[in-house]
């Protein structure tokens, strides 16, 4: 599986608080089609987005999928209501098997291109058992590549001792780099590192904020002006320069922003500019 350096995160195409259907369903369908037409080759979703509505929207918009397009989804979370507090992690073998097979059904595929364990937080099965279940599903052809989401560095190393890990996704951007050791380990192992909320200049759990704190703006805004770019494009260009393993998946409900994000792959920061941002 190969893909250009910037994908698309579809999580925002859900209802308020990521619960329920996206209010403008026809608009969501059209946006996803334009995303694929713009050259995006990796769309990221999860069964808990909605739950389930995001995967169904992607199928309705894009199935049968263009030959160049790959879909990544995740399993291991359950959600019983609109409140974020109702989300819990489950890792039981039969639950994960059901989750993967139902995601494949909703997406309309025989095999899911990239399937993530959505977290390392479940306590109803050991982490090793959960990774083993994904390895089993890959052997059966239900999933292609295996990914890990919201895991610790130790969990990544444990998983790598069991099965090949193709991708690791975590919160990582200009303003929040606490997952740098995970990025380093993924790069060393030859896995793809997928930052979520990559253009946000905020901490995990906070709403997306592309303006960011004043200290960050003072560095990024002059660089953006010199390049005739936006701050978000500079933030993406910096991420791409951190490691050849980085593949951001910015999410947006605007096709103009999708094209703007993709154009960031052509923005080359000077060594001094990259150093200035890294030094924040």
Distance between the termini: 34 Å
Spans with pLDDT under 50 lasting ≥5 residues?
A: none
- DSSP summary, beta strand count: 9
Main beta sheet: 7 strands, parallel
Structural class: alpha/beta
In which order are the strands of the major sheet placed? 1-2-3-6-7-8-9
Indicate the overall shape: globular
Give the count of helical stretches.
10
Question: Can you characterise this structure?
Answer:
- This protein is of the alpha/beta class and 280 residues long.
- Helix content is 40%, strand content 14%.
- The protein has helices spanning 25-37, 53-62, 93-107, 127-139, 153-160, 180-189, 214-227, 231-242, 255-263, 271-278, and strands at 8-9, 42-44, 70-75, 77-79, 87-89, 112-117, 143-149, 167-171, 192-196.
- A 7-stranded parallel β-sheet has the order 1-2-3-6-7-8-9.
- Helix 3 (93-107) packs across helix 4.
- The longest helix has 15 residues, at 93-107.
- The two termini are 34 Å apart.
Could you give a quick summary of the protein structure above?
The chain has about 280 residues and is α/β, with parallel strands linked by helices.
From the structure above, extract its key features.
about 280 residues, about 15% strand, seven-stranded parallel sheet, alpha/beta, single chain, about 40% helix, two-stranded antiparallel sheet
In terms of topology, how is this protein built?
Blueprint: E1 8-9, H1 25-37, E2 42-44, H2 53-62, E3 70-75, E4 77-79, E5 87-89, H3 93-107, E6 112-117, H4 127-139, E7 143-149, H5 153-160, E8 167-171, H6 180-189, E9 192-196, H7 214-227, H8 231-242, H9 255-263, H10 271-278
Parallel strand pairs: 1-2, 2-3, 3-6, 6-7, 7-8, 8-9
Antiparallel strand pairs: 4-5
Helix pairs in contact: 1-2, 3-4, 7-8
């Amino acid at each position: 599986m190969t893909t250009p350096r910037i994908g698309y995160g579809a999580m925002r195409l859900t209802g308020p608080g990521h619960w329920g259907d996206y209010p403008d369903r026809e608009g969501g369908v059209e946006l996803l089609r334009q995303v694929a037409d713009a050259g995006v080759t990796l769309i990221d979703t999860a069964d808990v987005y909605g739950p389930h509505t995001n995967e169904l929207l992607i199928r309705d918009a894009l199935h049968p999928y263009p030959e160049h397009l790959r879909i990544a989804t995740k399993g291991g979370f359950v959600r019983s209501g609109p409140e974020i507090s109702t989300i819990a992690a489950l890792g039981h073998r039969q639950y994960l098997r059901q989750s993967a097979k139902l995601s494949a059904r909703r997406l309309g595929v025989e095999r899911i291109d990239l399937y993530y364990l959505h977290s390392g937080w479940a306590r109803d099965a050991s982490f090793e058992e959960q990774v083993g279940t994904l390895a089993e599903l890959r052997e059966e052809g239900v999933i292609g590549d295996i990914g890990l989401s919201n895991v610790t560095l130790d969990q990544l190393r444990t998983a790598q001792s069991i099965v090949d890990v193709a991708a690791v996704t975590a919160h990582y951007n200009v303003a929040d780099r606490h997952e740098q050791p995970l990025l380093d380990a993924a790069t060393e192992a030859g896995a793809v590192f997928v930052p979520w909320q990559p253009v946000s200049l905020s901490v995990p759990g906070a709403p997306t904020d592309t303006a960011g704190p004043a200290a960050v703006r003072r560095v990024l805004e002059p660089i953006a002006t010199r390049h005739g770019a936006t701050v978000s494009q500079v933030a993406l260009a910096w991420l791409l320069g951190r490691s050849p393993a980085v593949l951001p998946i910015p999410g947006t409900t605007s096709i103009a922003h999708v094209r703007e994000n993709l154009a960031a792959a052509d923005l080359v920061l000077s060594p001094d500019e990259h150093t200035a941002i890294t030094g924040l």
